[in-house]
């Protein structure tokens, strides 16, 4: 009797299922098939490329297959940060200009996505680049790494992987500061395995000093640091002041921020999460300053001062910046993307000095003597 009840129950369930499917087939087969197709697509495609400015440099299939590999994680992260920052800037641009997207490849391996907005009403030139490159490590780059304490063999051909995002924003209004950020991941493969490290930072270059702006900027970066290690901000703030030193001028490029390199711990995953949080802090640290000042009035003399300070920016980038040198010395270098960091216009005047007790002199005093802002 019990078996009969079970059989009857099962038969009833099968019968009801068949009737339901028959009804769907007659009245809603198209809807059923469409739902099935969407489900199948979602299962197959787990990366939403609409969140990026362009398709990834690495094929989506490879990224999915190696989604737990740090190379894939870093590429997907910088793609998303690039899109979010470009869209945030476009929301502030009052003119019709939008980012031009230029995807490129290098024959030696890898490529990049360069996004540039120029001649805007708010942004004279804004560049947001990502690169994902592979190849053999050039000997001069290997020597530079050894000088920083890396255990890089000098007599072997080594394959490398590098992925990073780099951005420089040159505003039209001299009351809006310039911002730069760069976050990167590097791997070198040798006979003993893989060496890896992260690097990067975010820094601010105002033309006229607004202390509230600088404090907001530093506080936002400190919050990102403190969620991982409360010693990071102090260490990386000093490193930033020291790194962005225009030695021949005896002044810093700006009012600092964060800078670090050769970060390989506490674990690879923790280091990646720290870098991701720093990259995600760029919008809240900078965009409020654009909103605050983009409509400020300015004089022709103040615009000239902006051009003169941009000249210092160019001097640092071309003479001292390691990232620029790395790009220029990499085989198959794409110079248009590397020099994206330079402004459309700049100015050099012979033996220029700001007027005494002027706002311009106040800025220079801070650049010569870095301060603690928090």
Write the SSE topology.
Elements lengths: L1 H26 L1 H16 L15 H6 L4 H23 L7 E6 L4 E9 L4 E14 L2 H9 L11 E13 L6 E13 L2 E13 L5 H16 L5 H12 L1 E2 L4 E2 L4 E7 L4 H13 L1 H12 L6 H20 L2 H8 L5 H4 L20 H10 L6
Antiparallel strand pairs: 1-2, 2-3, 3-4, 4-5, 5-6, 6-9, 7-8
Helix pairs in contact: 4-8, 4-9, 6-9
Structural description of this entry:
47% of the residues lie in helices and 21% in strands. It is α+β, with helices and mostly antiparallel strands and 374 residues long. It has a single domain (44-368), classed as Coproporphyrinogen III oxidase, aerobic (oxygen-dependent coproporphyrinogen oxidase), CATH 3.40.1500.10. The strands form 2 sheets. It has a 7-stranded antiparallel beta sheet. A hairpin with a 6-residue loop joins strand 4 (159-171) and strand 5. Helix 4 runs parallel beside helix 8 and helix 6 (211-226) runs antiparallel to helix 9 (282-293). The longest helix is centred in the N-terminal third of the chain and has 26 residues, at 2-27. The chain starts with a helix and ends in a 6-residue tail after the last helix. 37% of the residues are buried. The model is unreliable at 1-43 (pLDDT under 50). Homodimer. This is coproporphyrinogen oxidase. Belongs to the aerobic coproporphyrinogen-III oxidase family. InterPro entries: Coprogen_oxidase_aer (IPR001260), Coprogen_oxidase_aer_sf (IPR036406), Coprogen_oxidase_CS (IPR018375). One of its GO terms (biological process) is protoporphyrinogen IX biosynthetic process.
